[in-house]
Design brief:
Blueprint lengths: L5 H14 L4 H8 L3 H8 L7 H11 L3 H8 L10 H9 L5 H27 L14 E3 L5 E3 L7
Antiparallel strand pairs: 1-2
Amino acid sequence: MASLNVGSLGEYIREQRRNAQYSLRQLAEAAGVSNPYLSQIERGLRKPSAEILQQIAKALRISAETLYVQAGILEERRGEGLELRASILADPLVNEQQKQALLAVYDAFLKENAAQRGAVAERSPAAGTGTGVPPASGPTTDGSVTQNIHREDR
């Protein structure tokens, strides 16, 4: 994960607040945070949690993902799991350490899947797997799952 860039995040929130024509006090009230706390966030003195960023985003009527990316919590990606990441980060029932663990597992799955896609793309469709053995199991074109069990003849 990228480190939190609180200075530019605060500037971004201030800019969005001014574009929405909110006073600091009005946004603080709409977001459910104290006026001094919001002021400290805007000045880059405080590091807001994902939950606070979500509240601020909702009050500003912008996506929470936008603030997460601006804060460096999320890397900007073209739709690659942003909604899932934002949901994990905004979940108040999971603590920060658990959120980071969930995101790390998700990233590991994405890397594994990308590696598998790369390995499949390297194989020629006409050549097959080169092992002479069909895959152990997998989905068929009609949505059912086949299982091929291989036994050695003795």
